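Postdoc handover notes: sequence design on the structure in folder B. Input tokens:
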């Protein structure tokens, strides 16, 4: 999950630099079985590039079409996919899906410093447990207030600037309970006769893995560790072994003496 969030942030930064428009698809609720659980995300650009996944391949095609519409209309949408339906010939058949899946698709405003991607960036940047809070509407597909709205951790609480739903719930307190329980939570409520739900997602910080030695045998180890979601740093005291091009761009490679690693002075100075 953490690796996916980091990949989404990196892809958003590249898309923003290239002037592309984006939407974010998030699994917000599942009844029955599905390949991905609530909190799975996928970034979609206006030229059809996908980063992340919301299913095992059975929903991405339709979600792409819906996301392009969301980008054009600049209005969030909640799509419900019922893969339990035997008459549904376009999704779920033979792909292991047998559930009802709600997908929130929201446009990304690059000028909003609290847009969903920036909230995700805040959640993963400090390497401490955090909580992302997403609001979605249980009624009609389209609702202007739906979206990723809050991020909080033990020291920080940030909210999306264009949230205009009135509610009587202490999001900060509930989010802190979620972090204590280390479990996701859903909060249903009614506002002006409409049924809404807050989805509180517990975000676990990635584990920092420091590998001493930059030999050829370390290359596959670093790749496997990054795939599993570790934050990987490779250190070696031999300057001729330090070659950043050998490793993934997200892998930190440092020239350091063994005693610096053993004494933990280097560990404390590595970027978070």
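Designed sequence:
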């Amino acid at each position: 999950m953490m690796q996916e969030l980091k990949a989404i942030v990196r892809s958003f930064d590249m898309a923003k630099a290239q002037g592309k428009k984006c939407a974010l698809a998030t699994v917000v609720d599942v009844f029955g079985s599905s390949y991905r659980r609530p909190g799975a995300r996928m970034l979609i650009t206006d030229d059809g590039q996908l980063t992340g996944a919301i299913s095992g391949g059975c929903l991405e095609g339709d979600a792409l079409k819906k996301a392009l519409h969301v980008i054009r209309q600049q209005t969030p949408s909640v799509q419900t996919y019922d893969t339990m339906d035997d008459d549904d010939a376009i999704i779920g058949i033979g792909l292991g899906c047998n559930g009802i899946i709600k997908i929130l698709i929201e446009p990304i405003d690059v000028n909003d410093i609290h847009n969903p991607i920036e909230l995700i960036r805040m959640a993963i940047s400090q390497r401490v447990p955090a909580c992302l809070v997403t609001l979605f509407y249980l009624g009609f597909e389209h609702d202007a207030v739906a979206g990723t709205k809050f991020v909080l951790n033990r020291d920080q609480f940030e909210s999306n600037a264009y949230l205009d739903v009135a509610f009587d719930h202490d999001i900060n307190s509930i989010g802190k309970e979620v972090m204590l329980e280390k479990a996701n939570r859903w909060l249903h409520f009614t506002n002006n006769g409409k049924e809404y739900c807050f989805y509180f997602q517990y975000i676990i910080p990635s584990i920092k893995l420091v590998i001493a030695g930059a030999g050829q045998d370390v290359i596959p180890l670093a790749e496997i560790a990054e795939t599993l979601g570790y934050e990987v740093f490779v250190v070696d005291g031999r300057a001729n072994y330090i070659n950043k091009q050998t490793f993934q761009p997200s892998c930190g490679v440092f020239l350091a003496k063994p005693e610096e690693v053993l004494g933990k002075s280097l560990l404390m100075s590595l970027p978070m």
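Context for whoever picks this up: Residues 89-95 have pLDDT under 50 and may be disordered. Don't rerun without checking with the PI first.
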